[in-house]
Amino acid sequence: MDRFPHAANVDFRSPLDLSKAATAVLDAEGRVSGWGSSAQRLLGHAAEDVLGRPAARLLAAAPTPRLSTLCKAPGTRSAVLDLRCVDGGTLRAAVTFCPLSHRGEAATVVVAAGLETLRGWEVQLAMLQGLATESPVGLTIFDNDMRVVWGNVSTDLELAGIGQYIGRPAADLFPEGEFISRHHPPDEDQIMEHVMTTGEPIMGMHYRGRAPADPVREHVWSCSYHRLVDARGEPLGLFEESLDITDRYRAQERLSLLVRAGKRIGASLDVRRTAAELADVAVPQLADEVLVDLPPAVIEGRQPPTGSAPGHSLLRMHGRTPEEFRTSPVSYPPSSLQATSLATSRPVVDVGPPGSLGGPESDGSYSCLFVPLITRDAVLGLATFRRSSNPDPFGAEEQALALELAERAAVGIDNARRYTSQHAAALVLQRSLLPQRLPEQSAVDVAYRYLPADSRVGVGGDWFDVIPLSGARVGLTVGDVVGHGVHAAAAMGRLRATVRTLALLDLDPAELLTRLDDLVAQDSESGADDGMSAEALGVTCLYAIYDPVSGRCVWASAGHPPPIVADANGAVALSALAPGPPLGLGGLPYENVELSLSGGSVVALFTDGVVEDRRTDIDSGIDRLAQILAWQRCPVEELCDRALAALPPGPQADDATLLLVRTRRLGPDRVTDLELPPDPAMVARARTLAERQLANWGLSELSFTAELVVSELVTNGIRYATGPVMLRLIRDRCLLCEVSDNAHTAPHLRRARRDDEGGRGLFLVAQMSQRWGTRYTSSGKTIWAELAIP
């Protein structure tokens, strides 16, 4: 489809041209002797109506001497006359009189055109003249060989004289220029060849280069190409329109740069990456390179220095090479422009002559812009924007742009600093809430792994613990609070502390979970906004007690996955434990499950993050962990590593905690039991047994203390019990003395008065032992005391 359907009506010939104008011939008497068809079209009079008649009859006004004067004038004369049309109307026309002399007969040729048509043509002519002499649009005409034929004044000014390029190819005009529009071939010869061949114009191409009249500054033009054809449609060449849009293009680039900066700078919450993001956005559009220097305090997450600008002991976070990063301090003398920028909190421009920076890379001149990184009225560091390929000083708009980028980077760096500080605090909190180191136990060999799902924060809601209990027993617990981050960690810390407190009361697993469930439910009902109640309905917990003397292990679960057990022969089995409801629901009981474990068995306690992810179900994860436990003869540390290595790759959906326990048994040579009837005379027998057993164990130094403690505990048991009393001595990391009876009354420690005959037994036990206490069983209670082995 023709893009200009009315192009055929565009005619730049003058309306008084003989090929277009109305023509007539007058004789010496002023009569019409010739009447052209064009005159008939203009006025409507037929030739037979006007030939031989006075021309004055064609005038709308009364004849005047002026017509005869114009006809008899020796030279060409022009005038504006009102002519009579055949329909009686009047046409104001521009009329030219040209006298002729042929064989002595005088005659005059008259040429006429409508005055309004002539004025329109003159406007078109003025427009063409303006395009050639005054328009800012550069117009250049090329012939069929794509050589320069003509250029208007704008082109002449850009090329510093069009004459020197006449007859030369287009490539000679801007030899180092390039098209930056990518929707057409980037080569100018290919573009011009396409227009010449197809006749299709190409418009709005952006071209970047340096004009001969301004070789230092880079310009951008919008260029369009059109084919030129003659009246027969034969190509004559083509012409190029070019408009310098440098300022508009740079404004658009600045706007797009700010948009990119808003999306990229500060998105990482990492100081070094934020500095690199600033450089990535600014290079090469604003500068050739960007240097970012920060004080160590900001990098480490601490408050920036106050009281004075950080002009010394800065660390380079982004520079020319990665080797520059944080390798050596950067110092600015007080008289330097960098120090001035930091002290005044304002940008400072530096323009240097060739070679003023020193070094092989500074053979040419350069321009630097120093911008302080400021946020919340604190100076965080300095950003240096440096350019050498275009050493023009940074203009006001470029300074404003650099300042905007620096402000965005400063906010990102400050956010990263605050995040670093909070992350460090969160890690300290996490480390304080989880066991710093697990106590050494004779009962078990332990290894653990903890992987938070939120690797950025580094904390989560999982917890585990190994709790030493009386009688060489050990409490084992693993729990999970829904969620990640500091709130989940805080809730986890409270729950872990509560479990440890209840465990030291020597509660069995089901009783412990029941009391813990009541506490969680109370916190949830109170609506306390302390992190624990918010997670209350998403808390699971497993608690187990292992006795190395009997090999008996008892556990209960509050909505937590049951443990996996691998015996000494490598046979792996999932516990038959049916988990009770999660903590905080209340109303449903928890049940104990008891299992006898042989020495060397491996028990895996874990959270669902170890066995469950988005791509596989929990059964597949349990099978995977069970296959790893089949290698149970490996050290538990190696088993932990194998288990984590088998996790699916990629980010975790949940925290993953694994606690592996290899059980041990205390042999008969380390435990002795004696059942005593409820007879006070048996106290002496108990002392004798204790003395003899300590001698066998090589602990005779403890005989006096141990006999005293055994005597008081047995006496207390015989006095209040109604049945036999059981004495047990265990040699572990300390000497354990236990006396069990069928009474459920709780012993109380008190200070006896001078005249009291009793009441000093437990006081003596407390003074002579490092720890003592009472635990209750289904058949009664056990009073125990621990004596340190010298």
The oligomeric state of the chains shown is: single chain
Measured by DSSP, the beta-strand proportion falls in 25-35%
Please identify the structural class as seen in this structure. Answer: alpha+beta
End-to-end Cα distance: 108 Å
Question: How helix-rich are the residues, as a percent range?
Answer: 25-40%
The strand order across the widest sheet is 7-6-11-10-9-8
Task: Count every beta strand, where a strand is a DSSP E run of 2 or more residues.
Answer: 32
**Tally of DSSP helical segments:** 19
Low-confidence stretches: 1-8, 354-363, 531-536
Mean pLDDT rating = 82
Q: Judging from the principal axes of the Cα atoms, what is the shape?
A: rod-shaped
Biggest sheet, open or closed, and with what strands and sense? 6 strands, antiparallel
- Rg calc: 51 Å
Which labels suit this protein?
790 residues; alpha+beta; six-stranded antiparallel beta sheet; rod-shaped; disordered N terminus
Summed up, what is this model?
The protein has 19 helices and 32 strands.
What does this structure look like?
With 790 residues, the protein is α+β, with helices and mostly antiparallel strands. 30% of the residues lie in helices and 29% in strands. The chain contains 19 helices and 32 strands. A six-stranded antiparallel β-sheet has the order 7-6-11-10-9-8, with helices on both faces. Strands 14-13-12-17-16-15 form a six-stranded antiparallel β-sheet, with helices on both faces. Helix 7 (246-264) runs antiparallel to helix 8 (271-282), helix 7 runs parallel beside helix 11 and helix 11 runs parallel beside helix 12 (485-503). The longest helix is centred in the middle third of the chain and has 38 residues, at 396-433. The protein is rod-shaped and about 175 Å long. Mean pLDDT is 82; it is low at 1-8, 354-363 and 531-536.
